[in-house]
Each structure stands twice: as structure tokens, then as C-alpha cells.
Write a structure and sequence with these properties.
The protein has six helices and eight strands; from the N terminus they run βαβαβαβαβββαβα. By secondary structure, it is an alpha/beta fold. It folds into two domains: 49 residues, no CATH class; 148 residues, Response regulator (Rossmann fold, 3-Layer(aba) Sandwich), CATH 3.40.50. The strands form three sheets. A four-stranded parallel beta sheet has the order 4-3-5-8, with helices on one face. Helix 3 packs across helix 6 and helix 4 packs across helix 6. The protein is globular and about 40 Å long.
Length: 217
């Protein structure tokens, strides 16, 4: 039986209590949404945020072209933990969202077809709680993020372009767009990267209090 939340009583687990916190106890105007007068955990968190102004952490995923890895990461984090984070993505040299990325995300019920490639500069004047780079250098591409000198614990390009970024984390994933071969071989590469990113997000973003602030290769 799923966890439920009554109007004035919230028996959620400890992780959810961190998210809902005093908002649930203070928000006595919640209206019932089911016949037995209970809320699901997700509905409870969503309503608490609406009523009590709870702030989500703002996360920005970065890679070179903002076409595959960072786009999939954006869609995955929003789907898995969207009640805890506002999610964005951008690239140092943006192009367009890769059709294979759209396809493999649709396979698991996530629609990123409305997402579009953006440059880092769009976030210059924004307050970002966590910047996450998901690219990695390789023989075919000299990534401007990966090759940027490390200054104050993060790439100089981030320090200079997103001065409002509070924390930085790096975790590189293979670039599926570099795979040569048939369409099926390319799809398989995108699926592998998608699944790798999804598992990493599940393992590391469940609790916003513990998400790493140091670079992680």
C-alpha cells in the first residue's frame, strides 16, 4: 500500500519529510483528492510546494552540444525526481536534440521532443544550485568543457559563464552520437548511455542534502 498523506498528518518516509518538512504541517488548506481523503506522496509534495512556496534545487546539466547526454539527463531527472529539482540543460557549442535521444527516451515513457539545445550563455544571470557536466574528452572531439582549465575546483568556462552557480559536479558518460554503424547499433549505444545516466541519477539524486559537491570522474 503506497504512503499516503492526510490533511493534517503526513506519514511519509524520512527522505520525503526532508522535502515536505514544515510545509506539510503548516499547510492545513489541502483538499482531498481521493475518496478516502488521502494524498499520494507525490501529490502531497506537489501541493505543499504550491501552497507553501517550497523551493526546488535548480540543476543544470552540461555537455558540448546539448544534443544527447545532457538532454537525456534533463528528461530523466525531471521524470524521476521532478518533485525535488528544477532541471535545465545547455551546451558550450549547442546544436540540436539528437533524434535517437528522443527515440530512446520515448521508449521508457519520457518525451523530450519539446526540449531544445541551448547555450551556456542563457544561464549567465541565473542562480543555479548545481551544475553537472556529463561530457568526457575522447579522440574524436576536444570538448570545450573538458579541456577548460580547472579553476577553483571547476572548469574555468563555468566560473566565467555561470558566475551564479553554487556547486559543480562532474560525471562523464560515453557519447552515443559518436558510434558508427547501422541505426540499430546507434540506438543500442543511446540506450546504454540512457540507462547509465538513469541509474546514476537514481543512485545520487534521491536526497538533495547528500548530492555531491565535489568533482566526480
Amino acid at each position: 500500500m503506497p504512503n499516503t498523506c492526510h490533511k493534517n498528518h503526513c506519514p511519509l518516509n524520512a527522505r520525503d519529510k526532508y522535502q515536505v518538512g514544515n510545509a506539510i504541517r503548516m499547510c492545513t488548506s489541502l483538499k482531498t483528492v481521493t475518496g478516502d481523503g488521502t494524498w499520494s506522496a507525490r501529490e502531497c509534495q506537489s501541493e505543499a510546494g504550491r501552497c507553501c512556496g517550497m523551493n526546488k534545487l535548480k540543476v543544470l546539466f552540461l555537455c558540448e552540444h546539448n544534443s544527447a547526454r545532457s538532454q537525456m539527463a534533463e528528461g530523466l531527472l525531471r521524470q524521476v525526481y521532478g518533485d525535488k529539482y528544477d532541471v535545465f540543460s545547455a551546451g558550450s557549442n549547442p546544436t540540436q536534440v539528437n533524434p535517437f535521444a528522443i527515440k530512446v527516451m520515448a521508449e521508457i515513457g519520457i518525451d523530450i521532443s519539446k526540449q531544445y539545445s541551448k547555450g551556456i550563455e542563457e544561464f549567465r544571470n541565473k542562480e543555479i544550485d548545481l551544475v553537472v557536466s556529463v561530457c568526457q574528452s575522447n579522440a574524436k572531439l576536444m570538448c570545450s568543457l573538458c579541456s577548460s582549465p580547472i579553476v577553483l575546483g571547476r572548469p574555468e568556462i563555468i566560473n566565467t559563464t555561470i558566475p551564479g552557480a553554487k556547486r559543480y559536479l562532474h560525471h562523464g558518460f560515453n557519447d552515443p552520437s559518436e558510434v558508427d554503424g547501422s541505426d540499430e547499433e546507434k540506438i543500442m549505444a543511446f540506450r546504454r548511455t540512457r540507462d547509465d545516466i538513469k541509474q546514476w541519477i537514481i543512485d545520487n539524486f534521491a536526497d538533495p542534502k547528500t548530492i555531491g559537491s565535489d568533482s566526480d570522474s
